[in-house]
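Hey, I was hoping to borrow your eyes for a little while. I'm sending you its amino acid sequence along with the backbone structure tokens. Take your time with it, there's no hurry, and the full record follows here.
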Amino acid sequence: MTDFTRSFDITIDAPVHEVFEYCRDPHHLFEGWPGLEVTDVVMTPEGVGTKAHIVGRFAKGMILEQIEREYTEFVPDARIISRAHARVRFAGRTKEVAKPPIFTWLFEAEDGGTKLTLVVLEEDLAWWQSMLESVSALVMSKNLHSMLAAIKTGMENQASPAA
């Protein structure tokens, strides 16, 4: 069994604290992924335990993914780690996802702004799953980059003065 990790980053023209506070809300973390809908968000003051229900529709609605994502580690202005419980419905069958990916969001100061890094970890994959992940990573990378771009746009538009 092997682990499969992929990492994506973007630089945002805003201070670390502001970017971190914006990302506390799971709506903001996933708004750039077409096909995902974030609902039933419950935010906790301390961060750990913040939960969101996420519905993903893929392949023209033939695949439906139900995800309960929860912040399991929350270090202000540094990192948010979220784990998930997921079910996938396809061809009339529903299957639990044994080990959904772990998302780690890292925040660090860079050139007067914030470098935001998303690390996606898939744990304990069999050799054939590792091969599939290598292929799906190419497809998923577009969506993960879109998520980061939406956070950047949301933050920088929020920081821009009204004209």
User: Anything to note?
Assistant: The CA atoms of residues 18 and 141 lie 25 Å apart. Residues 2-159 form a domain with the Alpha-D-Glucose-1,6-Bisphosphate; Chain A, domain 4 fold (CATH 3.30.530.20). The chain is about 30% helix and 50% strand. The radius of gyration is 16 Å.
